[in-house]
């Protein structure tokens, strides 16, 4: 452990639209924020090739390019942006204690958690290949469905989110094939009925994904297996959507911050406040409903304003 303890007004844990927006507002309020980028600087958007639904970009922008711009904007106002990730916290008393890379100890008057959530994938090598290529694998229908307009796609999942995303895709795509691993949905009855009644959604139960097939650059089909009969076949598709859930990156806060059953941080409704005074949350670490860049940025603004008001209340 370091012998020197750094004392700061505002610590932002994690980057992405939430963290960088919080940094912009905190810096402009003379809170001298320090932001640690985490294990994935820029967050989930760094894996998104095209972002067309963020206001202010009429021609669209790549995810990595947007994150660079947000980072530069935060720096412009004086945010201290650092490499590294938080490995331990102690929120039992003020000031809040945080350790970075298991060595650097920081005492912060306010903390903004913007660690995000990670989409769950099947883990197939072919899936990961086309995900990294940006060639047809996605975990967000609302983000990427537009690119598959009038095309045929496959979606994996059996819960409410999967049904919702399949229904969303059905309005854009010529055909949606939904793969359900067992013989029944995990979704609510009303959501299951919605997809079953949608003409261009085909549901394949007892079906698992064997391989995402393509030409090396883009997806062309999906090889599946009927787990009851053992039969394999290929389904023509240009897009492969995975809707099997997200895991919020909140494990290190579990001893101090109230989490829901999935691990999302529970905030005070209508604010970014957590159960610990002086600790706030922004972005997908708390949002399991919308999970969009623009909503993450909005809550980043809220967290910085809430942190500023908290500091003012201590004076």
Total beta strands: 17
Radius of gyration, whole Å? 21 Å
Mean pLDDT metric: 93
Can you summarize the main beta sheet? 7 strands, mixed
Along the chain, the helix and strand elements come as: EHEHEEEEEHEHEHEHEEEEEEEH
Structural class: alpha/beta
Q: Approximately how much beta-strand content do the residues carry?
A: 25-35%
Identify the notable features of this structure and list them briefly.
five-stranded parallel beta sheet; elongated; 17 strands; 7 helices; alpha/beta; 315 residues
Structure, described:
Helix content is 26%, strand content 27%. It is α/β, with parallel strands linked by helices. The strands form four sheets. Strands 1, 2, 3, 4, 5, 6 and 17 form a seven-stranded mixed sheet that branches. A five-stranded parallel sheet has the order 8-15-9-10-11. A three-stranded antiparallel sheet has the order 12-13-14. Helix 1 packs parallel to helix 2 (63-76) and helix 1 runs parallel beside helix 7. The longest helix has 22 residues, at 293-314.
Question: Secondary-structure map with pairings?
Answer:
Layout: E1 5-13, H1 16-28, E2 34-36, H2 63-76, E3 80-82, E4 86-90, E5 96-100, E6 104-113, E7 117-119, H3 125-133, E8 137-138, H4 141-144, E9 152-156, H5 160-170, E10 175-179, H6 189-196, E11 201-204, E12 207-214, E13 219-226, E14 232-236, E15 239-242, E16 246-248, E17 279-281, H7 293-314
Parallel strand pairs: 1-2, 1-6, 2-3, 6-17, 8-15, 9-10, 9-15, 10-11
Antiparallel strand pairs: 4-5, 5-6, 7-16, 12-13, 13-14
Helix pairs in contact: 1-2, 1-7, 5-6
């Amino acid at each position: 452990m370091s012998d020197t303890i750094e004392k700061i007004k505002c610590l932002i844990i994690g980057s992405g639209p939430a963290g960088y927006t919080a940094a912009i507002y905190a810096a402009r309020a003379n809170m001298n924020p320090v932001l640690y980028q985490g294990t994935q600087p820029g967050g989930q958007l760094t894996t998104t090739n095209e972002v067309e639904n963020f206001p202010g970009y009429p021609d669209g922008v790549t995810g990595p390019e947007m994150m660079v711009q947000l980072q530069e904007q935060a720096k412009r106002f004086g945010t201290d942006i650092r490499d590294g990730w938080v490995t331990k916290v102690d929120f039992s008393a003020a000031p809040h204690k945080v350790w970075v890379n298991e060595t650097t100890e920081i005492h912060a008057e306010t903390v903004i958690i913007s660690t995000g959530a990670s989409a769950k994938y099947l883990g197939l090598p072919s899936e990961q290949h086309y995900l990294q290529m940006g060639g047809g694998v996605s975990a967000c229908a609302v983000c990427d469905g537009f690119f598959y307009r009038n095309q045929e796609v496959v979606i994996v999942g059996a819960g409410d989110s999967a049904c919702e995303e399949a229904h969303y895709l059905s309005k854009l795509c010529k055909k949606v094939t939904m793969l359900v691993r067992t013989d029944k949905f995990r979704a609510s009855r009303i959501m299951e009925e919605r997809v079953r009644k949608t003409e261009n959604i085909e549901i394949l139960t007892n079906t698992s994904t064997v391989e995402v097939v393509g030409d090396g650059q883009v997806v062309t089909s999906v090889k599946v297996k009927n787990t009851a009969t053992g039969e394999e076949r290929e389904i023509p598709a240009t897009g492969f959507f995975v809707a099997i859930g997200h895991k919020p990156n909140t494990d290190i806060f579990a001893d101090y911050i109230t989490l829901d059953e999935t691990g999302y941080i529970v905030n005070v409704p209508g604010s970014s406040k957590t159960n610990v005074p002086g600790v706030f949350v922004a972005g997908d670490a708390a949002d399991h409903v919308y999970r969009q860049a623009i909503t993450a940025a909005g809550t980043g603004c809220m967290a910085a304003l809430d942190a500023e008001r908290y500091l003012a209340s201590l004076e």
